[in-house]
Amino acid sequence: DKQMKQIEDKRAKGRVFKKDSSFLKAEENVFDVPTLKLLYSFANKGFINELGGSISTGKEANVFYAIGNEGEVAVKIYRINSSTFKSMDPYILKDPRFTHIRHSRKDIIFAWTQKEYQNLLRINKAGIRSPKPITFDRNVLIMEFMGENGVAYPSLKEIKMDDETARNFYDQIIENMRRMYVRASLVHADLSEYNILIDTEKEEVVIIDVGQAVTLNHPNAREFLTRDIENIKRFFKKFGIDEPTKEILERIKLK
Ligand code: ADP
Ligand code: MN
């Protein structure tokens, strides 16, 4: 339509986004007119100067690389037309911070984006290495890019390591879970080798994807914590690590 054409014309002039970026080639439902307008408004404010390629296309969100006034950033865009938004319900409607929101798909997605921003703030404050949140609006979250020179850190799943290195990462993860629990009063609730990146140079774990993280007073917090622990245990088993769940729980709750 006309609005879209205007935005397209601006883009074609190369005012904001690189012409050859994979931005507009991605699934078109990410880039409905309101989302495009929002990206332009972020561009006008200097949060995005150059939008690079797609880092990831997930079930609910697309992540893009960009450069803004703050340096390298990751732009996470939740798709309004995502068909899996129903799966967000248990993580948001029962979180005491978000029980008041309207239950439409759009409102849940906007609240989810805000929740991820707030969780990132709390998690960073707790001394956990994770992307620093920069800004958010509606369905778009801009955060620190975890990587270097346009290359994102690999996930824990992707790297090759010996048992000793694995033990180091395992201990860092449990310590991060402890900080999240004790200092931030949060349970990640989707912790796995996919949502942990590795800064290979510093040999440091980075926790990502915290939109579903819930406060400790969420009715399912305990169940989510046990599930996170079981995921981590399953992954590290092949490196000879087999700590009883009870002992891990004690470590996580240690003040
Ligand atoms: P999803 O809900 O789709 O799993 P994630 O937040 O896990 O969303 O992001 C998907 C992928 O995008 C991650 O596995 C990671 O490779 C990349 N990614 C996400 N956030 C960042 C970031 N801040 N810096 C670098 N890469 C990121
Ligand atoms: Mn993820």
Number of helices: 7
Largest sheet descriptor: 5 strands, antiparallel
**What is the CATH-assigned architecture of the largest domain?**
2-Layer Sandwich
Bound molecules: adenosine-5'-diphosphate, manganese (II) ion
Shape: globular
| Beta-strand percent range | 15-25%
Note the quaternary state here: single chain
Count of folded domains: 2
Intertermini distance? 57 Å
Report strand order across the widest sheet.
1-2-3-5-4
- Percentage of helical residues? 25-40%
The H-level CATH homologous superfamily of the largest domain, spelled out, is Phosphorylase Kinase, domain 1
Overall mean confidence score, pLDDT: 91
Give helix and strand order, one letter per element, not per position.
HHEEEHHEEEEHEEEEHH
Structural class: alpha+beta
Q: Which fold does the CATH topology of the largest domain refer to?
A: Phosphorylase Kinase, domain 1
Q: Quick one: CATH class of the largest domain?
A: Alpha Beta
Ranges where pLDDT stays below 50 over 5 or more residues in a row are: 18-22
What does the model show?
The chain has 255 residues and is an alpha+beta fold. It is globular, with a radius of gyration of 19 Å. Helix 5 crosses helix 7. It has a 5-stranded antiparallel β-sheet, with helices on both faces. A two-stranded antiparallel sheet has the order 6-7. A two-stranded antiparallel ribbon has the order 8-11. It contains 7 helices and 11 strands. The chain starts with a helix and ends with a helix. Strand 2 (61-68) and strand 3 form a beta hairpin. 36% of the residues are buried. The chain has 2 domains: 14-151, Phosphorylase Kinase, domain 1 (2-Layer Sandwich), CATH 3.30.200; 152-253, Transferase(Phosphotransferase), domain 1 (Orthogonal Bundle). The model is unreliable at 18-22 (pLDDT under 50). The structure holds adenosine-5'-diphosphate (ADP) and manganese (II) ion. Manganese (II) ion binds next to loops.
